[in-house]
Amino acid sequence: MPNLAVWSPRLLSVLRIMAALLFMEHGLMKLFAFPGPQPAVPDPLPVILVVAAWLEVIGGGLLALGAWTRPVAFILSGEMAVAYFTAHVGRSGTIFPALNGGDGAVLFCFIFLYLAAAGGGEWSVDAQIRKRP
């Protein structure tokens, strides 16, 4: 069996990029209804959702590039924890993600927490800056 460990930093980057792009999509849906409107989002957006949307768009963009990965991922992990407990548990009254629709928020929260610890991987702006003499 080939040594798959050499792929670990690259796949970390792939995980970061894909999670960031999917995350950005949620912010774009809230702000610009692109690629379509986000279901169950009030119009006009309350201030907390405007802040969340900009965190998702800007933070997702920075994560996709792998720029300031650790602090950005930590902030976004916190955003998702707050979103889970306010929007999912708060509305449904149950803590189980499968019942309250919070699966995505929980996954984003823990993926971002992992990225805050692991960094951006081999294919990131952070890694390129570290390589400079």
**Any idea how many domains?**
1
Radius of gyration over C-alpha positions, nearest whole angstrom: 16 Å
> In one word, what is the shape?
globular
Biggest beta sheet attributes: none
- Beta-strand portion reads under 5%
Percent helix range:
over 70%
How many helix segments?
Answer: 6
Low-pLDDT residue intervals, each spanning 5 or more residues = none
Number of strands: 0
Distance, first to last CA: 36 Å
Order of helices and strands: HHHHHH
Q: Write down the overall mean pLDDT.
A: 94
Structural class: mainly alpha
Outline the structure in words.
The protein has 133 residues and is mainly alpha-helical. The chain has one domain. The chain contains six helices and no strands. The protein has helices at residues 8-32, 47-65, 69-92, 97-100, 103-118, 125-131. The model has no long low-confidence stretch (mean pLDDT 94).
Keywords:
single chain; 133 residues; mainly alpha; globular; transmembrane helix
Write the topology of this structure:
Blueprint: H1 8-32, H2 47-65, H3 69-92, H4 97-100, H5 103-118, H6 125-131
Helix pairs in contact: 1-2, 1-5, 2-3, 3-5
Summary?
This protein has six helices and no strands.
